[in-house]
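ingest -> validate -> predict -> emit
validate: passed (alphabet ok, no gaps, 247 aa)
predict: started
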Amino acid sequence: MKLSFLISILWLIFAMICYAEERQIGFIEDFSLSKNRPDVLKQLIPGTEDYYFYHALDAQHRKDFDTVHQLTGQWIKQHGYTERLKQITHRQALLEYGKNPKKSLEYIRQELDLRFDHQKEVTGPKSDIPSALNSELISFSALQQQAFSRYENLDGIEDAGLDMLKSDELDPVRRRDFLRRLQRPDMSNLAKIIIDDLKYKDSGGFGSFPIHYQLLKSQLDECRKLMPDLADNSNFVRAYLSKLLPG
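emit:
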C-alpha cells in the first residue's frame, strides 16, 4: 500500500514537471509568433521574473526604451541583478548605441573590463646588445671565404650550398671536389667544367664521377666537341648510348 502511494506521488511530480516545461516552451512559442503580444503577456504573473523579462523584451522590440528602464528598475528591486536581467541590459546597450553611443560604449567597457592604459614594460637599462645579425658576417660570400680559408677542398660547404658557388671560378682542387659531389646536371657550363677537370693532372677520366653519367645528350655532345678523344672512351660511349635509348 505504501509502495503504491509512493509511486503515485512520484508520477504526480513527474507529470507536474513535464507540464511546467511544456507550458514554458508553449509560452515562448506563443510570444515569438503572436501578432498580438499584449494578450500573450497577460498570461504572466506580475512581479515574477518572467513578467519583467518578457515585458522588457517586448518593449525593446517596440523601441520603447523608457519602458525598459522602468521595468529594469522594478526588476532589480524584486529579484536583484540576475542573469536574465543582464541579457536585457546588454541588449539595451546595443539598441541605444545610435541614440547615445558614448553611454553604450562606457557600459560595454565596464562589463568587459576593458582597459587601455597598457604601457611598455621596462625590464632594465637600455641594452647595447645587437638585436639583429650583421648581414655582412653571415652572407654566403663571407661564409664561403671562411670555409675556403679552413679547407683546401669544399668540405666547408654543404651540398645545399653547391648551387651558390661560382663553379667556373673554382681552383682545380675545389672544382674536382665540386664535380665529385654534384648530383644534378642542371648547369649551363657543366660540360666545360668537366672537360677542364679531365685535362687537369691526376684525372680519373670520364666516368670517374657519377655526374658524368647524368649529363644530357646535348652536354655530352658539347664535351665531345671540346675533347674529341672522348669518342674513343668506353665510359663516354656507354653514357652516350644510354641517352639514345627510347623512353
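The chain has 13 helices and no strands.
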